[in-house]
């Protein structure tokens, strides 16, 4: 079991003052590249993640980002064959509603598939850019209504008066593609990896992310006792 000492992207945004309003685009590009690569692999095995969010983007001390939250994963393989869509109620709806795709919430005959994860990538990208998920703070029923009506992601105003960083054309384009209300128009993870925004990971050293996140540094594992290591391991993979 891999222990990720640097914590999650959500942890960093919530606890480190320099990142309270989100990360700069070079950081977002690196994070998304690793996450989308993970999704591509997961989808190739026939699994839908259903909980793609910054809370589940865990950063290893070497600067590699891993996708956790696997308790929500569901297989699209039934009776030895891959089905076109999944149906049925998802028990994690309330906690994850800000990130969930409209088709997953609608519970209609069309069902949902791998492209629901791509929608969540778009929401998570906005979360990484602003420090907060779109729709956060709204009642659950209102979020569902907005999503089912095809309303674009809503960014709530911050109470601290600080302005969010500018979202570039490259990032905005990726987000718009991912959150398209029509799942068939969303790009596959493979196509996302070929966008100019995500190609950046190929051009940087693995530890670049570690440097970009300063002054945040991984925990010094030499000072951890066995009990604490066990607790952190459980936390990272909860």
From TrEMBL:
InterPro entries: Kinase-like_dom_sf, Prot_kinase_dom, STRAD_A/B-like. Keywords: Kinase, Transferase. Residues 1-198 form the Protein kinase domain. GO terms for cellular component: serine/threonine protein kinase complex. GO terms for molecular function: ATP binding; protein kinase activity; protein serine/threonine kinase activator activity. GO terms for biological process: protein export from nucleus. Belongs to the protein kinase superfamily. STE Ser/Thr protein kinase family. STE20 subfamily. This is STE20-related kinase adapter protein alpha. The lineage of its organism: Eukaryota, Metazoa, Porifera, Demospongiae, Heteroscleromorpha.
């Amino acid at each position: 079991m891999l222990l990720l000492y640097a914590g999650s992207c959500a942890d960093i945004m919530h606890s480190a003052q320099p990142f309270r309003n989100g990360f700069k685009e070079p950081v977002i590009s690196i994070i998304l590249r690793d996450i989308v690569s993970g999704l591509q692999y997961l989808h190739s095995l026939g699994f839908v993640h259903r909980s793609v969010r910054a809370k589940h983007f865990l950063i290893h001390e070497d600067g590699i980002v891993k996708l956790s939250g696997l308790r929500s994963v569901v297989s699209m393989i039934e009776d030895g064959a891959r089905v076109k869509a999944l149906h049925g109620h998802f028990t994690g709806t309330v906690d994850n509603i800000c990130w969930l795709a409209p088709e997953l919430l609608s519970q209609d005959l069309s069902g949902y598939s791998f492209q629901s994860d791509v929608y969540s990538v778009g929401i998570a990208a906005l979360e990484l850019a602003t420090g907060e998920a779109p729709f956060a703070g709204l009642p659950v029923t209102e979020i569902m209504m907005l999503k089912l009506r095809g309303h674009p992601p809503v960014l709530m105003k911050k109470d601290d008066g600080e302005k969010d960083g500018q979202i570039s054309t490259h990032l905005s384009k990726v987000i718009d593609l991912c959150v398209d209300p029509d799942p068939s128009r969303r790009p596959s993870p493979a196509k996302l990896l070929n966008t100019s925004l995500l190609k950046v990971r190929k051009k940087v050293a693995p530890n670049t992310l570690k440097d970009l996140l300063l002054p945040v540094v991984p925990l010094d594992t030499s000072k951890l006792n066995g009990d604490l290591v066990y607790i952190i391991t459980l936390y990272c993979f909860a």
